[in-house]
Amino acid sequence: MNKQQLLNEPEYKAVRSSGAGGQNVNKVSSKVILSFDLNNSQAFTEEEKELLNEKLSSRLNTKGTLILQCDEDRSQIRNKQLVTKRFIELIETALQQDKPRIATKIPKAVIKKRLENKRRQAEKKQSRKKFDY
């Protein structure tokens, strides 16, 4: 991953924020929308693109574009910084390889305890039955 090139590729768009805020919301375009075309990116290798497509599949639209937005702050510059930070963190976490799970053997004491509890429960239920003479 080429981080410098990655920071140059996203497109930023400023729009008016929704919600309460009075005249500031009505006048100032402080909400920032970041859109990043993953398929046409030059910052990743093909293997990295496949991994990102797999891990971020729920966040990508049908064209393979990742869209993030931020309207937490009144300042457009601060919102741009926040959305860029989130974007970098999202990409870095998606590129991390998961450790393979190592299956462990169930201890004999645990199996014995489970079967003992099961037997006790069965006896308890059996003792509640009506006895047929």
Spell out the blueprint of helices and strands.
Elements: H1 3-8, E1 11-15, H2 23-27, E2 31-37, H3 46-55, E3 65-70, H4 76-95, H5 108-128
Antiparallel strand pairs: 1-2, 2-3
Domain Prokaryotic-type class I peptide chain release factors: 16-32
GO molecular function: peptidyl-tRNA hydrolase activity; ribosome binding; translation release factor activity
Region (Disordered): 1-22
Q: For the report, how would you describe the main beta sheet?
A: 3 strands, antiparallel
The structure class reads alpha+beta
Residue-averaged pLDDT, rounded? 89
CATH topology of the domain at 3-95: Double Stranded RNA Binding Domain
Report the count of strand segments.
3
Q: What is the 3D shape?
A: elongated
Please provide the ordered H/E string of secondary-structure elements: HEHEHEHH
Number of helices: 5
Query: How are strands sequenced across the largest beta sheet?
Result: 1-2-3
Assigned CATH class of the domain at 3-95: Alpha Beta
Second CATH tier, the architecture of the domain at 3-95: 2-Layer Sandwich
- What percent of residues adopt helix (DSSP H or I)? 40-55%
Strand content: 5-15%
Keywords: Hydrolase
Region (Disordered): 1-22
InterPro entries: Pep_chain_release_fac_I (IPR000352), Pep_chain_release_fac_I_sf (IPR045853)
GO molecular function, one term: ribosome binding
